[in-house]
Amino acid sequence: MFKKLREKWKVGPFQLTLILCTFACGGSATGWAAKKIMNGFSLQQDWLWATLYILLVTLLWPLMVLVISIPFGQFRFFKSYINKLGSKMGFLR
Predict the structure, then answer these.
(1) What is the number of domains present in the chain?
(2) Whole-angstrom distance between the N-terminal and C-terminal Cα of the chain?
(3) Rounded to an integer, what is the distance from CA 25 to the centroid of its chain?
(4) Using CA atoms, how far apart are residues 3 and 69, in angstroms rounded to an integer?
């Protein structure tokens, strides 16, 4: 599995480790920040809370991953990754 990722992204084993750490830390930070933001709202309906949480995570994730990629030295990779993802989803040209 890791070999396929290395070939797909054209990276070495050390850079792959840094990329995976960035994904993990970015995802965790996104969940933490979204929960902190959601706790500021007093929503009684569970379905509304869950819907807003999913929307917030979707919007926060690219920003968090870009910010966290800076200390890991992977900003260029993630900037390109997010641009490709955005264009596939129709958000970017």
Answers:
(1) 1
(2) 30
(3) 9
(4) 22
